[in-house]
Amino acid sequence: MFDAIIIFSVLSLILGLILGYAAIKFKIDGNPLVDQIDALLPQTQCGQCDFAGCRPYAEAIAKGEAQINQCPPGGQDGVDALAELLDVETLLLNEEFGENTTDHVVYVDEQVCIGCTLCIQACPVDAFVGASKVMTTVIEDECTGCDLCIPVCPVDCIHIKALETTLGNYVPDLKEIAHG
Asked: For 93, 140, 154, 173, which has the most beta carbons within 10 A of its beta carbon?
């Protein structure tokens, strides 16, 4: 009887050590759902969703503290992808947080630019190229149209440029589809 107690104690100790090691070795940092949600977001870090960036917004969605339709740069496609991932009913993009701005980019009037670099600092996706006291320009392929650079420009040299509609960037008006 005493031998059985010793054997079970030793086995319990060994199993406890193995489980302790496995908990340390295979520890998962963070919530994998947050990573999946964050991967679906456009990574513009624009703050239009009322969060400091895409990662905080993803965390809020995972906790149930935010709706899936607060990301204008992600558009309706982003909302639909989030709904599918989370297995919830899709919602229409909430225009309270802004409009889907994938139909334009910004450009800098180089004759007026003073090289203050405020636009470079405001841009969440590093779409601006320039340096202090040197003319700044926009890399159009990187610009997400979040327009965060426009209000910080002291000389109003940043303007909106509509993108030519192509099959690659066409976004139908969802209101027309719903009511049409």
From this structure: 93
